[in-house]
Amino acid sequence: MTDTQPTNNDLTRTIVLVYGILENSNPFWVFVAVKPSKYQSFLKAQKDGTLNLYQFTDYGEIIVSGAGTSPPDDVTIKVAEMYQTDPNKLKDQVNAE
Question: What distance in Å separates the CA atoms of residue 64 and residue 56, rounded to the nearest whole number?
Answer without folding.
Answer: 13
